[in-house]
Structure to design on (571 residues):
C-alpha cells in the first residue's frame, strides 16, 4: 500500500512532476527577454534604440498570454520582429509541452490519491460530533452506514476497493460520509481515519478478511482502548484470538443466527420480539411463522450447516443431513447429494419433514433446494441462506419463512450494541423469562406502535445527557418515571414510548420498570417507541421550562426578559 501523504506532499509532488516544463518555460522567457534587449530598434527620430529589460519582460508577458500585441514603446525594427517570431513559436512549443504535462499529472493515480487523502483528512478533522469508523464498505457496511445515517449518527469509511468508495457519493445520505480507499488493517490508516479522534464513538470492522479484522481489533485495542470495537469473525480461531486480548464485541453471523434459531425453537414469542426490536430502522417486521418441532432436513454441512445442526441438537430436534461428503460424526442420518434434485430430498424424507435448511454457499443452489422441497411438501418451514444481499429480489420472490442474510445479521447486532448499549442486557433478561412474558410484551408493544421497527434509545440521568432533570433531582425533588414521559406540548398526553429496562448506578437492573418508579441521578433507561417521542423527551430532559411544565403544568416564561417581567408581576 502507498503510504498516506503528509499535508505538504501534494505541492512537492506537483512541483516534481512539472519541474521540466517549468524550467523550459522559464528558459524560453529568459532567452526571449534577453534577445529583445539585444536586438536593435529605431525610435521616433530614427535613432538606434534598445529595449530595456522592463519593456522586454512586459512585452513578452502579454505576448505569451494573449493573441494580439502592440509594439512598444516604438514600432519594432525588422530584427526585433524576426526575433519576436522565433519567440512566439518557442512559447507555443513550451506551453504545449506544459499543458500536456499538466493533463498527464491530473490523470496520475498518485496525485489523485494524495488529493483525496488530503480532502479526507480535512473532513475527519472538522468532525465536531460523534462518529463511527466503519472499516469495509461491502453489503454490511452499506446497511450500517444507511442505518446510522437514518438514526442521525455520522460515519467515516475506510475501504480497500476504490470502486466501492466511489459508490458512497451515489447514496443519498443526509450527512457527508468521508471515505478513503486504503487498507484498514494498516494502523497508520486507522489513525488518519480518526481512530484517535476525540469524537470517535466506535470502530466497526466489517471486511471479508478475518485477518484484516483481527489487525483492526488489535490496533483499536492498543491505540484507542476506550473506543468500543465491533469485529466480524467467521473463523473460530480468529474469534478466539480477538477475545484473548480483550475485544469486547465479536460477531459471527452464523453463530448469531444459530442462537436465534435456538431461541425460536425454544421461545417463539421471545424470538419474534427480538426480531422486532433489533430490526433495521425504517423497515417493517412481519409476524413470523413459528419454526415447528419434528424432523428437519439440512442441505450443506459447511460452517453454517454445522452451527444449524448444533442449534437443533440443543433443542433435541432430529435432523437429516444432505451433503456430498459424509459428516464427521455418526449421530445424524446422512444422505449423499446436494439437495437440488428431488431424489436426495425424497430419500431424506422431505414429505414427512416439518422444516428444511438450505445452507450451501451458493445462492442459486439454495433457491433450487427450497423450490424443489416446497413443491414436494408445501407445508415445509423453509430457512434459506442468502449469501449475497444483492440477490434479495430472488429471495423475496420465493418468500421463504426465514432468509439468513449475514450482512443483515451483523448490521442488526452492531446497531444494537453501538447505538443502544442497554438493549443487550434487556435481551439477555428477555431470554431468561418464559415465553408467556415475551408474548404479552410483544402484543402490548405491537398493539401500540404497529409492526414498523420502533426507535430504541437510551437516556442517562446526568448533567451531560439530561441537565434539566438532573438539576431537579439534585434539589431533592421526587420525580417518577411516568411524570417525565408526558408530552411537553400537552402534559395530558403520554409520549408514544415504553420503558423497557432501568439500570441504576449501584448495579440494580429492572426490566419493564413501572411508571411510579422514582428516578435517581445516574440512572440509565432504555425506551422503545416512535421517533417523535425521542425528540420530545429530549426537549423535556434538556429544557428546564419544558420540564417544569411537564411536572407541574405551569408554563414558565422563556428568556431573561420574560423571566424578569414574571418576577415583577409576582412581586
Amino acid at each position: 500500500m502507498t503510504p498516506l501523504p503528509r499535508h505538504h506532499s501534494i505541492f512537492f509532488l506537483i512541483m516534481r512532476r512539472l519541474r521540466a516544463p517549468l524550467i523550459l518555460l522559464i528558459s524560453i522567457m529568459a532567452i526571449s527577454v534577453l534577445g529583445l534587449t539585444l536586438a536593435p530598434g529605431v525610435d521616433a527620430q530614427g535613432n538606434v534604440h534598445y529595449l530595456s529589460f522592463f519593456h522586454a519582460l512586459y512585452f513578452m508577458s502579454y505576448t505569451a498570454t494573449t493573441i494580439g500585441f502592440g509594439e512598444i514603446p516604438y514600432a519594432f525594427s525588422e530584427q526585433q520582429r524576426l526575433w519576436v517570431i522565433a519567440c512566439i513559436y518557442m512559447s507555443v512549443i513550451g506551453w504545449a509541452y506544459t499543458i500536456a504535462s499538466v493533463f498527464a499529472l491530473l490523470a496520475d493515480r498518485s496525485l489523485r490519491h494524495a488529493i483525496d487523502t488530503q480532502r479526507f483528512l480535512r473532513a475527519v478533522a472538522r468532525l465536531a460530533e460523534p462518529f463511527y469508523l466503519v472499516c469495509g464498505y461491502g453489503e454490511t457496511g452499506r446497511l450500517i452506514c444507511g442505518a446510522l445515517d437514518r438514526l442521525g449518527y455520522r460515519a467515516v469509511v475506510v475501504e480497500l476497493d476504490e470502486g466501492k468508495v466511489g459508490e458512497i457519493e451515489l447514496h443519498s445520505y443526509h450527512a457527508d460520509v468521508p471515505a478513503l480507499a486504503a487498507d484498514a488493517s494498516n494502523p497508520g490508516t486507522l489513525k488518519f481515519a480518526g481512530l484517535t479522534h476525540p469524537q470517535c464513538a466506535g470502530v466497526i470492522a466489517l471486511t471479508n478478511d478475518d485477518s484484516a479484522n483481527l489487525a483492526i481489533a488489535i490496533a483499536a485495542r492498543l491505540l484507542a482502548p476506550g473506543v468500543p470495537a465491533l469485529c466480524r469473525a467467521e473463523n473460530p480461531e480468529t474469534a478466539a484470538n480477538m477475545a484473548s486480548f480483550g475485544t469486547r464485541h465479536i460477531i459471527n453471523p452464523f453463530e448469531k443466527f444459530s442462537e436465534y434459531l435456538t431461541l425460536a425453537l425454544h421461545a417463539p414469542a421471545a424470538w419474534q420480539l427480538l426480531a422486532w426490536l433489533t430490526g433495521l430502522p425504517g423497515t417493517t417486521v412481519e409476524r413470523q411463522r413459528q419454526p415447528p418441532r419434528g424432523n428437519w432436513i439440512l442441505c450443506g454441512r459447511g460452517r453454517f450447516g454445522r452451527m444449524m445442526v448444533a442449534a437443533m441438537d440443543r433443542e433435541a430436534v432430529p435432523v437429516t443431513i444432505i451433503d456430498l461428503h459424509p459428516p464427521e460424526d455418526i449421530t445424524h442420518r446422512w444422505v449423499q447429494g446436494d439437495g437440488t434434485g428431488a431424489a436426495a430430498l425424497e430419500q431424506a424424507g422431505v414429505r414427512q419433514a416439518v422444516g428444511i435448511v438450505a445452507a450451501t454457499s451458493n445462492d442459486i443452489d439454495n433457491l433450487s433446494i427450497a423450490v424443489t422441497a416446497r413443491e414436494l411438501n408445501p407445508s415445509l418451514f423453509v430457512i434459506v441462506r442468502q449469501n449475497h444481499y444483492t440477490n434479495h429480489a430472488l429471495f423475496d420472490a420465493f418468500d421463504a419463512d426465514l432468509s439468513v442474510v449475514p450482512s443483515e445479521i451483523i448490521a442488526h447486532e452492531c446497531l444494537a450494541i453501538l447505538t443502544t448499549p442497554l438493549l443487550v442486557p434487556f435481551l439477555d433478561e428477555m431470554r431468561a423469562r418464559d415465553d408467556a412474558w415475551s408474548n404479552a410484551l410483544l402484543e402490548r408493544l405491537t398493539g401500540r406502535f404497529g409492526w414498523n421497527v420502533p426507535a430504541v434509545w437510551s437516556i442517562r440521568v446526568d448533567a451531560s445527557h439530561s441537565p434539566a432533570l438532573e438539576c431537579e433531582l439534585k434539589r431533592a425533588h421526587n420525580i417518577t418515571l411516568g411524570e417525565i414521559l408526558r408530552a411537553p406540548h400537552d402534559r395530558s398526553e403520554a409520549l408514544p414510548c415504553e420503558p423497557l429496562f432501568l439500570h441504576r448506578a449501584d448495579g440494580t437492573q429492572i426490566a419493564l420498570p413501572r411508571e411510579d418508579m422514582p428516578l435517581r441521578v445516574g440512572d440509565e433507561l432504555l425506551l422503545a417507541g416512535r421517533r417523535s417521542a425521542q425528540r420530545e423527551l429530549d426537549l423535556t430532559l434538556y429544557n428546564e421550562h419544558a420540564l417544569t411544565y411537564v411536572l407541574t403544568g405551569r408554563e414558565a416564561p422563556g428568556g431573561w426578559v420574560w423571566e424578569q417581567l414574571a418576577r415583577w408581576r409576582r412581586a
